[in-house]
Write a structure and sequence with these properties.
The longest helix has 52 residues. By secondary structure, the protein is mainly alpha-helical. Helices cover 86% and strands 0% of the residues.
């Protein structure tokens, strides 16, 4: 009887092990394609709901109509997307080149931190839409106001995330490397910066998304090219489908730039274990 019980227990354990193995195989597949599955469900519901609700294409075009318009207007969208892309990348690059050194000054100087933080917070709380007409007045109708808006709206997250990343390092680790003879220059590049990179890239991801918003806001106020300008033109022509196509292009631009930052992060930072 004992042998039979042992065989039965082993068989049950093997079945449980097989089920767990199948779950482990299924989980990565679901995680990998979960975004596509959710998008397909939402788009399918949208496609079916529009005719069922009796809505015209002028009020709410279907995803199929929007996709068809994107394909048909692809050269036009690409031409304007190139302008917006240049504004976004230029503004984001300025935010990185100015924000990182400013964050270092804040980290290493307590007096500078107390002096500059209220100004940064005050600048961040000002709606950028309110600044757009002033920037056009002072900088003209060219590239400058759109790039400046992209810079202003993406600057704050980069500074804050860099400061937080530098401050989150355990002091005991700093004491350890200093006890081994490392100077501050070596401590920064060997310990502080690698530990802060995940936070810095987190700020980059937020900033690049906000930079798209800033550039488009600038194009709403004064522009002759760009996706924001194209959307205004679609509004003036009551072309709802082209309006939605432009929104999709703006969103696609932001998502693409986000994943470019994510790809760079995966190549230059160490991977942290998730707390889940």
């Amino acid at each position: 009887m004992a042998g039979t019980d042992a065989i039965g227990a082993g068989s049950a354990q093997a079945k449980r092990g097989g089920k767990m193995a199948r779950k482990k195989v299924r989980a990565p597949w679901l995680e990998r394609y979960s975004a596509l599955l959710l998008a397909a469900v939402l788009l399918g519901a949208w496609q079916a709901a529009v005719p069922l609700a009796g809505l015209s294409e002028f009020v709410l075009p279907t995803p199929l109509a929007i996709a068809t318009r994107i394909v048909g207007e692809l050269p036009l969208l690409a031409n304007h997307a190139y302008v917006t892309l240049f504004e976004v990348v230029s503004g984001f690059a300025m935010a990185v080149l100015i924000g990182i050194p400013l964050a270092l000054l804040i980290f290493y100087s307590r007096a500078f931190e107390r002096a500059i933080y209220p100004i940064l917070v005050a600048l961040q709380t000002v709606p950028k839409v309110a600044l757009a007409p002033l920037l056009v007045l002072y900088l003209g109708y060219g590239w400058a106001p759109k790039i400046t808006l992209a810079f202003l709206i993406s600057f704050f997250p980069i500074v804050i995330s860099t400061v937080v990343g530098l401050q989150s390092l355990d002091k005991n680790l700093v004491y350890l490397v200093r006890s081994m003879g490392a100077n501050e220059w070596q401590t920064f590049f060997k310990v502080r910066l690698p530990a802060a990179l995940p936070n810095i890239f987190g700020g980059f991801k937020v900033a690049i998304s906000l930079a798209v918003i800033g550039a488009v806001i600038g194009e709403y106020v004064a522009a002759e090219r760009g996706l924001g300008y194209l959307q205004l033109q679609a509004n003036s022509l009551f072309d709802t489908t082209l309006n939605f196509a432009t929104v999709v292009a703006i969103s696609g631009l932001g998502v693409t730039l986000y994943f470019v930052i994510d790809f760079i992060e995966s190549r230059v930072t160490y991977k942290r274990d998730s707390a889940k």
